[in-house]
From TrEMBL:
InterPro entries: Beta-barrel_RND_2, BSH_CzcB-like, MdtA-like_C, RND_pump_MFP. GO terms for molecular function: efflux transmembrane transporter activity. Residues 97-225 form the CzcB-like barrel-sandwich hybrid domain. GO terms for cellular component: efflux pump complex. It comes from Sphingomonas abaci. Residues 1-20 are annotated as: Disordered. The chain crosses the membrane at residues 27-45. This is RND family efflux transporter MFP subunit. Residues 316-368 form the Multidrug resistance protein MdtA-like C-terminal permuted SH3 domain.
Length: 387
């Protein structure tokens, strides 16, 4: 009895049997191992098979393209020439001449029409005019006397004291005296006009360009030019142009003139196109009217840009243009996004770009840059940018 009681107490103290718990743990570990092996197999074989079956992705270069359209392009003509007065007026001696006593103007002075530029000594001419003026007074006195005698004769002829023949003689005497007054007056006026022509005067409003007169200089009809003037102060540039540039150029065309050695520009317009061509140089002259400015010195050299018309052409940046032995060309992108060569002809070059006279209509997609790294037929990924 005591033995059985002790054995039962020992079993209660030892607890339940651990064998079933250990079996469950083994099954759980085995299940985890199987899952891990399955995942590893899928990662190794499933992904590898899928990657081998997928096609490789093609990497296309991204290239900027533009659709230039058509823009208004000025037809510019580059020209060189000399500056001059539009209407140059040489001024010399108009009368009989004499010794210059004073010069009243200097080059660069503005003068009015009839203004005295220089005076000539007139001491002898003044005395001659005075004598003629005195003759006018004598003739007028004779006329007054003849008229008085005629009036008295008319009063006496009715009384029979003077015959009609005597009256006619007195009338003729009066008429002769009146004629002598007119002759003397005309001679006096001529002398005064000659004296007035002794002074050298400006023929019109304008700017004095040169002076060749000095006090004490004796001048006459054959002396030559003493002053040169620009009528109204108007200047011009006489641009030398080739036959090809003269084609289509007409008066009214806009121009910008830059004198040599100056950074200033002056706006003007063509007012005359030469109707003839120099047979030696094969050039003609286009005369560009300019408003007076002290920087425009007649005789100086200048360059001009003349706008002879406008056209509508595609404009491209310099970076889009390529060239080789065959000439200038660009790369365009076709409907399949493939690069194709297109030969072009270049026109006017300006700050806005290079005009294309032929080869493009403006609707094409043109490679903007990096054309040197592309080849005809190459496929690209175009990115359209603003022209």
């Amino acid at each position: 009895m005591n033995y059985e009681t002790g054995t039962i107490a020992q079993e209660r103290l030892a607890g339940p049997d651990p064998a079933p718990a250990r079996g469950r743990r083994r099954w759980m570990v085995a299940l985890v191992v199987v899952l891990l092996v399955a995942v590893a197999a899928w990662a190794l074989f499933g992904r590898g098979h899928k990657g081998a079956a997928a096609k490789p992705v093609e990497q296309l270069p991204t290239v900027s393209v533009i659709a230039p359209g058509r823009s208004t392009v000025d037809r510019l003509i580059q020209a060189t020439g000399t500056l001059a007065a539009r209407r140059e007026m040489p001024v010399g001696v108009a009368g009989e001449g004499g010794m210059i006593t004073r010069v009243l103007v200097e080059p660069g002075a503005w003068v009015k029409a009839g203004q005295v530029l220089a005076t000539v000594d007139r001491s002898v001419q003044t005395q001659t005019a005075a004598a003629l003026g005195a003759q006018v007074n004598v003739a007028q006195a004779d006329l007054v006397l003849a008229q008085a005698e005629l009036d008295r004769a008319r009063a006496l002829v009715d009384r029979g004291f003077i015959s009609k023949a005597d009256l006619q003689r007195r009338t003729a005497t009066r008429d002769a005296a009146a004629a002598r007054v007119k002759v003397a007056g005309a001679s006096y006026a001529e002398a005064r006009a000659r004296n007035g022509r002794l002074d050298i005067r400006a023929p019109a409003d304008g700017l004095v360009l040169t002076r060749q007169a000095e006090p004490g200089q004796v001048v006459g009809a054959g002396t030559g030019v003493l002053f040169r003037m620009a009528q109204g102060g108007q200047m011009e540039m006489r641009a030398q142009l080739s036959e090809a540039d003269l084609v289509g150029l007409s008066p009214g065309a806009r121009a910008v003139v830059t004198p040599v050695g100056s950074t200033r520009t002056f706006k003007g317009e063509v007012w005359q196109v030469s109707p003839v061509i120099d047979p030696q140089t094969r050039q003609g002259v286009a005369r560009v009217l300019l408003t007076y400015d002290p920087a425009l010195r007649p005789g100086g050299f200048a360059a001009a840009q003349i706008v002879s018309g406008v056209s509508y052409q595609p404009l491209l940046p310099d970076s889009a243009l390529q060239s080789d032995d065959r000439g200038a060309y660009v790369y365009i992108v076709d409907a399949q996004d493939k690069v194709q060569r297109r030969d072009v002809k270049l026109g006017q070059v300006s700050d806005a770009g290079v005009a294309i006279t032929s080869g493009l209509n403006g609707t094409e997609r043109v490679v903007r840059s990096a054309g040197g790294f592309l080849a005809p037929g190459q496929k690209i990924k175009p990115v359209l940018q603003k022209a």
